[in-house]
Amino acid sequence: AGSDITYTGSTTRSFTFGTSGVYAFSTSLRVDTTVGLYVWFAPTATATSDRGKNAASGGVQVGTSATFRITAGDVYSVWMWASGACNLVREGGSTGLAPWISIEYLGPL
Q1: Residues of the chain with pLDDT under 50
Q2: What is the pTM of this model?
Q3: Mind listing the pLDDT tens digit for each residue in 78-98?
Q4: Which of 15, 61, 77, 108 reaches 20 to 30 Å from 37, CA-CA?
């Protein structure tokens, strides 16, 4: 997860922040079939308080980024919605198409 960020691997796959500040979130996800996709970042408790929502209509890959002002103790998740059944894909080799999430501390509030 990174310095002073705690990852909790549960249904929500959440990140808890230990330091207040400005953070940049980025992600890229790929699935195994053509579906409508949405991906966004939001507080874990309120998935509808979304930021950086992006969509791919009839796509297999979607990515997004957003910047947040976060207070120590805040908990955020990366959310995804798909219009049909699909699985995340992790491709080997040097394709660079594996799902990823990046969270970078930019500085104090």
Answers
A1: 1
A2: 0.81
A3: 888 999 999 888 766 566 566
A4: 15
C-alpha 109/C-alpha 93 separation (Å) is 39
User: HEC string of the chain?
Assistant: CCCCEEEECCCCCEEEECCCEEEEEEEEEEEEEEEEEEEEEEECCCCCCCEEEEEEEEEEEEEEEEEEEECCCCEEEEEEEECCCCCECCCCCCCCCCCEEEEEEEECC
Residues in the chain: 109
Residue type, 94: S
